[in-house]
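Action item from last week, closing it out:
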Amino acid sequence: MPGPVFLEGDRVTLRPIEEADLEFLQAQVNDPRIWRRIGRSRPVNREQEREFFEDDVCSDDTVVLLIVADATPVGVVGLHSFDWEADSAELGYWVAPEHHEQGYGTDAAARLVAYSFDQLGLHRIAARVFERNEPSRRLLESLGFTQEGAHRDVAFIDGAYRDGYWYGLLEDEWRSERCDGDD
């Protein structure tokens, strides 16, 4: 497993994305089972994946980590759209289809949420989910996120406009959930 572990979860580790991971990322983001769920409708070539790596992954304005299970890359989790005046950011993630329903996404997102509140001092985390992505909605709700609204016809996927649902989690709600779970 190249690169050092940044965050340790129960089922996964999160580590910085390296250039050696770009082939995995490009292959997965071009899989229809991924791009449909994340609202992307155009293919990504090697140069575009490299641009994502250089512009987003290597940026000081994001936190983007590779989800690794048993030394195997299984997905990505990250924070972007930081607003440091409001102490907020947006959470995003995906897990490769062959690794769905194993708890990897939930563990990774939970670790990054904890890091966001405990280390970055965030007050609020937002997340967006497109319609027909029930697994992602369940993941967010299992972490304590609340659906806050909908953006109607916000993405054009599979020949139709799709709604997007916004979720939010406040630090005090997250801490309250954690305390309630310790009883």
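Closing note: The chain is about 35% helix and 35% strand.
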